[in-house]
Design a protein that fits this description.
By secondary structure, the chain is of the alpha/beta class. It is about 35% helix and about 20% strand. Strands 1-2-3-4-7-8-9 form a seven-stranded parallel sheet. A two-stranded antiparallel ribbon has the order 5-6. α5 runs parallel beside α7 (about 215-220). Bound molecules: zinc ion (2 copies).
Length: about 270
């Protein structure tokens, strides 16, 4: 069995633990591989990301951990790149491309926020029209490939973060689904992998991972490979909902996930993962 989590945040950005604390926790709990994915520096929201100097310190620290613990687990240095970050993308083993912000007339407006804040974004910029907000999120997400060469599409339907508790729009509506599918099809032409991301479960927002079943079905039709991650911000959530996510993928026609190795991404049978 081999368990890998490629979506990890640490105290270098908005996570709780140091990278070394995560490594020690992984060793103790039988996790074989970690990929760190700090939030890229955001000039428009510096308190939520790694700083520019912090990014260099982060790279150095992950390198140190690779050397210190390399015989006990596989460690990779990645980046969760916010689309509008404008940072260099060199020096990483892999890149997750994510959209947490809308560009509205040049202003960067965050939507990975509390339900109250999302409601306020919808009222302020979309005249209270939640569907228009969702459609615009997907339209902008489709621009991701312009900003870099990414390996993994991060939490593709993040816009549904609050859908279980606060229905800002109808996720069953044809307009919503078409917007999501159009965006996904565009991304699939240049990004090879998507993540089943359980981060919102660990944090109590949702009971199911991103993306929704109709999108996982489309990922399979489009030939995208899957990775399972927990968007971990605290070590206790390192493998949150991983088993259920493997079953979820299996139920939607996947028989393998992709794992990162020193030779790049390779498929692994779901029953060998976790
Ligand atoms: Zn994210
Ligand atoms: Zn993340």
């Amino acid at each position: 069995m081999y368990t890998q989590n490629l979506h990890l945040h640490t105290a270098f950005c908005d996570g709780k633990d140091t990278p070394e604390e995560l490594v020690l926790y992984a060793i103790e709990h039988g996790v074989q591989s970690l990929g760190f994915s700090g939030h890229s520096y955001m000039y428009f929201a510096p308190s939520r990301s790694m700083s520019l100097e912090g990014t260099e310190a982060y790279k150095k620290e992950i390198l140190r951990l690779k050397e210190k613990y390399g015989d006990r687990l596989d460690i990779f240095c990645g980046l969760e790149m916010e689309m509008y970050s404008e940072v260099p993308l060199v020096g990483y083993d892999y890149l997750i491309g994510s959209c947490h912000y809308l560009d509205i007339d040049g202003k960067k407006v965050g939507f990975d926020r509390s339900a109250e804040e999302v409601g306020s974004v919808i009222d302020t910029y979309f005249n209270g029209n939640g569907l228009a907000y969702a459609v615009e999120c997907y339209r902008q997400a489709a621009l991701l490939p312009r900003y870099g060469s990414f390996d993994i599409i991060g939490h593709f339907d993040l816009v549904t973060k609050h859908a279980e508790k606060v229905p800002f729009f109808d996720t069953e509506s044809p307009l919503y689904r078409e917007a999501a599918l159009d965006s996904l099809r565009t991304l699939a032409s240049s990004i090879p992998l998507f993540e089943v991301n359980t981060g919102a479960i660990a944090r109590g927002y949702r009971t199911s991972p991103y993306p929704a079943p109709f999108l996982v079905d489309e990922c399979r039709r489009l030939g995208l490979g899957a990775v399972i991650t927990s968007d971990c911000h605290a070590k206790e959530d390192l493998t949150c909902h991983f088993k259920e996510s493997a079953l979820y993928l299996e139920a939607h026609g996947f028989d393998s996930v992709y794992i990162l190795t020193k030779e790049g991404f390779v498929p692994m049978k779901l029953k060998e993962f976790i």
